[in-house]
Amino acid sequence: MSNHQPIIRVEDLTKTYGSGETAVRALDELSVEVQTGEFVAVMGPSGCGKSTLLNMLGALDQPTEGKVWVAGEDLSKLKNVDQFRAKTVGFVFQLHNLLPTMTAQENIEVPLQGQIGSRKERRERAAHLLELVGLGDRSHHLPGQLSGGQRQRVAIARSLANSPALVLADEPSGALDSQSSEEIMALLAQLNESQGTSIVVVTHDRRVAQATQRVLRMQDGKIVSDHRITDPIEEDLRMFAQSQFGQSLLANNPSLEKFIQERDIATLRHLLQAYDDQAASPEDAGSS
Amino acid sequence: MIFRNLTRRAVRSSLTLLGIAIGVAAVVALGAIAEGLASNFAVVVGGSSNDLLITQAEALDPALSNLDDTIGERLQAVPGVERVEPGVYTWVTTADLPFFLLFGYEIGSTAMDHYRIVEGKPVSGPGQIVIGRRATESIDIAVGDNLRIYGTPYRVVGIYETGQGIEESGGVLMLEDAQAAAQFERKVSLYEIGLRRGDNVDDTIARIESLDIDLKVSKTSERESNQQYEQMLQGFAWGIAAIAIFIGGFGMMNSMVMSVLERTREIGTLRAVGWSRWRVLWIILGESVTLSALGGVFGIFLGIGLAKLAGTVPGMGVLLTGVFTPAIFLQGLGTALVLGLVGGVYPAWRAAGLRPVEALSYEGGTASDFQAGKLSRFGSQSFRNLWRRRNRTLLASAGIGIGVGTLVMLGGITAGLIGQMNNLAGSGSPGNLTVMQRDVPDMSLSSIDENVVRQIRAMPQVESVSPMVLGVVLTPELPLFILHGLDPNSPAMDHYKLAAGRRVQRPSEIMIGSNAAESYNLGLGDTLTLYNTRYKVVGIYETGVAWEEGGGILALRESQRILNRPRNVSFLFVDVTDPSLALPVQEAINQRFPKVRASISSEFAQNTDDIASMQGIAAAIGLLALVVGGIVVANTMIMSIYERTREIGTLRALGWPGKRILSQIMQESLLLCLLSAIVGSVGAVLLLTGLAALPIPGGAMLRPAWEPGTFAIAVSLAIVLGLAGGFYPAWRASKLQPVEALRYE
Lengths: 288, 745
What we know:
The structure holds two protein chains of two kinds. By secondary structure, chain A is α/β, with parallel strands linked by helices. Chain A contains eleven helices and ten strands. Chain A has helices at residues 50-57, 81-87, 104-109, 119-132, 148-159, 178-195, 206-210, 232-242, 244-252, 255-262, 265-280; strands at 6-17, 24-35, 39-43, 65-70, 73-74, 89-92, 166-170, 198-203, 214-219, 222-228. In chain A, helix 4 packs across helix 5 (148-159) and helix 5 runs parallel beside helix 6. The longest helix of chain A is centred in the middle third of the chain and has 18 residues, at 178-195. Chain B is of the alpha+beta class. Chain B has four domains: 1-42 and 228-362, no CATH class; 46-222, no CATH class; 381-423 and 605-745, no CATH class; 425-603, no CATH class. Chain B has 24 helices and 24 strands. The longest helix of chain B has 42 residues, at 2-43. The interface between A and B is medium-sized, with 35 and 32 residues.
């Protein structure tokens, strides 16, 4: 964190899908910087552009306008996109996207192919990473034989294969139960701390965001707020107050303001639980 | 999403359509060609304005008929007969045409008038020929040019038309010239008879038939070709159509099964929102019928085009001219509909029977759809991906395997034939030569004058010459009986090892092969009737060559008599005094007697045109298998990459270059095809071995030989298929945009 070169620099990034009247602006002149070693959450409702941003950072998609630098490299001038995807960034997908025909260890070797020549070294590296995510005894299991949480751990190990400077995770716990979800976020936080890897997580779950150090909120292709997390309860309340659900609740029940100001923990927990339940309801749980 | 779904379905639909169309095209084109073969042959020399046609009673076809030219005078004496016109009708091979029909008639005869001159003038003397319109198209020859037949030049004086393709691909000479060219000395193929008006036709026919037992009389207006022959041609046509339906039909069914399998999820959705199993089926049924019918119609046009194209092949074209009948179109369309329905409804029925949850998770791209099994961690990724969809892999392998298998089977049969022909009588020692008439399209047409036999026998390096006459008997009692005429004391007789009894000593005796004895249930002392003559079985022999064992041996003179070939034989087996002299003697014979061809016996088969035709058929079927197989491969691989779109997107996102994806998919395609080649080859070997073991007369004739070359061809075919069928899907996969691929459901 003392390193002054930002791992991500985004300037006036615009991405438009389609053209003419049906054109959709997924990103609208967005600018942001992330410092090396930061663990950042990008939040926002469905369709706010958070996944699009992640794809741009991973060089999976080209911007319509604007520039992106990752680890000092201008993505519009990349000579070898494949090399960049394999080495500089690591991707963790919502549905893990492990290849079903490969064992856990072979899945981790996928990004190593073409990077590390010897098969033996690839194996050793994969085995080391599996140990790192606590699955040393599962190396010869196929994804179909692993639980959801274990699969996602393998996916995280895979994203770390080439020791990337940046890990991009798109709803990494979106398909998991709450306990596995916490474990995954704890693993990411631990990796951030021990390896110094910069991590950007896209999520719409406040509990996931809590595990990070900085939250970027997006709406309609723009960043609408950017702040560091100091006090988790404070963060939760801010999120609650800003949400549509929270606002309508507060408008109808002015007495709630008092609880917030007095920080009545029991009542607040109750309120936040209601908020979580609402957020987890089907119409809101659609894909990003 | 909707748009993407539509384009995705469009590619799949057109592939299915193409698969069906090619199958139907194969059925239609091959059916039409076979039909054309059968019907064209039946009408040759049928269109004359003479009233009756007289041929040898047991000849399969006028081309195989031999009649003494003295019969003409006796015919002329029959009351009611006004004109007697002898004719020669035979197949010859010229420099450019493997099948050239030669007709010979007396100058100025009514029979000659059948060949209507449209350019130049008719034949008016020796050394002249008029040729058919179609022949001029294939060999680039015009009035005034010379045409060489067995070394003798004939001047083309005119061009004729008859309206009948096969007749128009031949030529007409004056009778004596034709007799000389065809080695028909003092013999003719047929007589055409003009009747006196007013007499009762049937009475006259009866009078002619009572003249000689060897004559067959038919009215030119309703000429029936030999029924056996007709059946043989029909059988051939059906055999080819069956292969076409088999290969093409499987391709169709495959396409349909794939296209419905792919929609398992969609079917699950329909079931989940409350559609009944029957309603789902009904919809799929409708789509299958539409697709099959469309593909069928498209295929019919494609088939017509293909058959027309085959008709333009120089030289062979006339034999491949298709005859299109409504039955053939119905056959093609019917195959498409039936197989399309079966192929469409079965997987739809299964999909609709799945619990909606299962159907919905069918291709979700989640890990759970890859069931762990014994083989799931074995082998390369290509293998595992094929294993992952083993039913589909099996289906595709079967589709490709049938094509490969057919080819292997044909290869095995051809190699077996070559091997058997090279083991024919006379090949006992390495210094043997086999001599047959040069440039005859079929071995049974070979004809050598006995003067040649005497002259070869007189050559100093020649130790012995064994002449042999070969005839094919096809009667209801004896389907496919190969008659050999051989002098009982000739050295070639050693080839026939006696299993029981003794050798032929009298003209009324016959030796038969062990297969014939078994098939026709004949033993020593039994009698056998050939060409109205009864022969006593005195010996049973074995040679190891299927068709020799499926026939019998008569004394040379006796067989010449009943086959009507006096002073004339089919083959000579020549023994030289010293094996090292075989080559020089072969050259000497070929030089001295331009009308015959001597080959070292062990290489004899490769020099015959029979084997060349067989290999041509194998090549054509190979091509068909290639096209159908290519579609199956492309279909399978496209389906496979659609299913794995997300996986491919993931690999791209993880930094795999497009090239690596391309090579992975190509590897998979190649592996699939190699697997199919193995399945097909094993299947072919098992099937033929099984067929050969069946106790049917034809079964024993099938003695396949398995050569490495045959399997090498099968494997090369598989590699070509894998490369051709896999390239487009692989290329598409490598060009997938990662973002879209990852979003793909």
